[in-house]
C-alpha cells in the first residue's frame, strides 16, 4: 500500500467505533445504565411512599392514644360528678337545714363543674323543692314519661342514673338522677343537668384542638357538640370510641387535621426524582445520537 493511502488515526478510530462489536457493546452499556436509572427512580418513589405510610401509621397510633386519654378524662369527670351528686343526696336527709346544705354544696358543684348547668332537688312526686341556680318553672311536659322512668330507675337501682341526650336550641344535654333515701324510704332525687358543649369546652385542652377536631355524636352519627380550632377544616384519619357514661350509643369522634407536609422534604424528593429523570432522558438522547453516528 502506498504511503499516501495509509488511513489516518481518525479514520482508524471511526472504523473501530463502526464495528458491530463496539456498537453492540455501546448499546448494551447504555441500556444497562438506563435500566439502572429507571430502577433508581422506582426505588426512590417506593422509598418515599413507605416513609409517607410510616408517617400515617405513626399519626394514627398517636391519634388513638390521644382519643383514649380524652375518653378516660371525660369518664373520670362524669363519674366524679355522679359521685358528688350521690354524696350530696345521701347527706340531705340527715341535715338540720337541708335547703342551706343544698345551696352551699350545689353552688360549689356549679362553680367547679362548668358543664353542669343546673341542679334540681325534686321530691318523690316530681315537684321541685329547690334549684341552683335560682329556681325556674319546671314541668316535664311531653317528657313526663321519660322523667318518671328515670325517677323509677334511680329508685330501683339506688344509685345515680344517666339519661340519653336531648336537644335544647343549639346545644345537647343529658341529666344525672341521683336518688335520695331517708332511712331506706325513697323521697326524691337530685337532678344534674349537663351540657355537651360546655363539657368539651371544659375538658378538651387547647393543644388537643390544635391537632384534632373533636365531636360528640349520638348513635346515628349526628353531632351533639363539637370543638375545633378551624371550622370546616380538612381532616384525614379519624377515630371513635363509645362514651359510657352516659351510654345510649353516644361516642367521642376525633378527626386529625390534614398536615401541610414538610416543604423541605417534599422539595428534596421532587428534586431527586426530577434529577434522575433528567439523567435518564439525557441517556436516551445520547443513545439516539450514537445510533445516528
Description of the structure:
There is one protein chain. The strands form two sheets. Strands 1, 2, 3, 4, 5 and 6 form a six-stranded antiparallel beta sheet that branches. This protein has a four-stranded antiparallel beta sheet with strand order 8-7-10-9. 53% of the residues lie in helices and 23% in strands. The chain contains seven helices and ten strands. The two termini are 29 Å apart. The mean pLDDT is 83. Strand 9 and strand 10 (251-257) form a beta hairpin. By secondary structure, the chain is an alpha+beta fold.
Give a quick set of tags describing it.
single chain, 293 residues, alpha+beta, six-stranded antiparallel sheet, four-stranded antiparallel sheet, 53% helix, rod-shaped
Strand content: 15-25%
Q: Give the proportion of residues in helices.
A: 40-55%
Q: What order do the SSEs take from the amino end to the carboxyl end, as H and E?
A: HHHEEHEEEEHHEEEEH
Whole-angstrom Rg: 37 Å
Count of helical stretches: 7
The helix/strand class is: alpha+beta
Number of strands: 10
Average the pLDDT over all residues and give the rounded result.
83
As residue ranges, the low-confidence spans are: none
Distance between the termini: 29 Å
Characterize the main sheet: 6 strands, antiparallel
Q: Label the overall shape.
A: rod-shaped
Amino acid at each position: 500500500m502506498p504511503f499516501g493511502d495509509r488511513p489516518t488515526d481518525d479514520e482508524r478510530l471511526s472504523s473501530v467505533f463502526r464495528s458491530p462489536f463496539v456498537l453492540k457493546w455501546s448499546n448494551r452499556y447504555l441500556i444497562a445504565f438506563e435500566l439502572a436509572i429507571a430502577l433508581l427512580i422506582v426505588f426512590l418513589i417506593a422509598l418515599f411512599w413507605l416513609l409517607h405510610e410510616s408517617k400515617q401509621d405513626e399519626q394514627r397510633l398517636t391519634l388513638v392514644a390521644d382519643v383514649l386519654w380524652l375518653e378516660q378524662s371525660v369518664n373520670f369527670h362524669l363519674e366524679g360528678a355522679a359521685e358528688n351528686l350521690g354524696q350530696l343526696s345521701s347527706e340531705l336527709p340527715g341535715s338540720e337545714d337541708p335547703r342551706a346544705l343544698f345551696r352551699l354544696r350545689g353552688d360549689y358543684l356549679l362553680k367547679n363543674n362548668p358543664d353542669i348547668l343546673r341542679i334540681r332537688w325534686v321530691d318523690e312526686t316530681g315537684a321541685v323543692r329547690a334549684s341552683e341556680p335560682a329556681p325556674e318553672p319546671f314541668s316535664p311536659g311531653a317528657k313526663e314519661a321519660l322523667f318518671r322512668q328515670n325517677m323509677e330507675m334511680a329508685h330501683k337501682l339506688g344509685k345515680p342514673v344517666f339519661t340519653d341526650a336531648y336537644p335544647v336550641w343549639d346545644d345537647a344535654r343529658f341529666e344525672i338522677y341521683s336518688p335520695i333515701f331517708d332511712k331506706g324510704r325513697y323521697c326524691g332525687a337530685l337532678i344534674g343537668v349537663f351540657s355537651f358543649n360546655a363539657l368539651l369546652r371544659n375538658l378538651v385542652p387547647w393543644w388537643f384542638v390544635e391537632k384534632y377536631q373533636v365531636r360528640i355524636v349520638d348513635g346515628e352519627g349526628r353531632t351533639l357538640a363539637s370543638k375545633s380550632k378551624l371550622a370546616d377544616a380538612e381532616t384525614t384519619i379519624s377515630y371513635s370510641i363509645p362514651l359510657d357514661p352516659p351510654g345510649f350509643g353516644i361516642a367521642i369522634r376525633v378527626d386529625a387535621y390534614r398536615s401541610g407536609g414538610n416543604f423541605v422534604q417534599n422539595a428534596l424528593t421532587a428534586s431527586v426524582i426530577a434529577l434522575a429523570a433528567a439523567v435518564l432522558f439525557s441517556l436516551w438522547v445520547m443513545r439516539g445520537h450514537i445510533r445516528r453516528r
